[in-house]
Amino acid sequence: MRLRRSAHATSNEIEAAVARHYSEEIFDDERTRLPADAPVEFAITCRCLARWINPGSVIAEVGVGGGEYTRFLAGRGCRIEAVDVVERFLDEIGRAHV
């Protein structure tokens, strides 16, 4: 990803560049990254989430990525308020009825 680094770059320009990168260049990779490339990280994080977040909690998830943790928490009955600069990620978790 190439971000234009300049004193004149606004946070909106940077946000747009990040969103384009994830949406256009690595969308499919991000959707499968955790289970395929980092299963131990995923398992440990899920174990910690299960320990610290009660079933049925309301969660603010900022940066949903491929939605693996979103699906995990939803499976525990949590209500998730998801935020991401990449609309495609939000569309994906919405289609999964999370």
Description:
By secondary structure, the chain is mainly α. It is 58% helix and 10% strand. The chain contains five helices and two strands. It has helices at 11-25, 27-37, 39-52, 68-75, 87-95; strands at residues 58-62, 79-83. It has a two-stranded parallel sheet with strand order 1-2. β1, α4 and β2 (79-83) form a beta-alpha-beta unit. It is globular, with a radius of gyration of 15 Å. Mean pLDDT is 84; it is low at 1-6.
- What's the helix-strand series? HHHEHEH
- Give the count of helical stretches: 5
Please bin the fraction of helical residues: 55-70%
Beta strand count: 2
Which stretches of 5+ consecutive residues score pLDDT under 50?
1-6
Strand-residue proportion: 5-15%
Global shape: globular
Briefly note the structural class of the backbone.
Answer: mainly alpha
Overall pLDDT confidence: 84
Strand order of the largest sheet: 1-2
The biggest sheet, with number of strands, parallel, antiparallel or mixed sense and barrel status, is:
2 strands, parallel
List keywords for this structure.
single chain, 98 residues, mainly alpha, two-stranded parallel sheet, 5 helices, globular, disordered N terminus
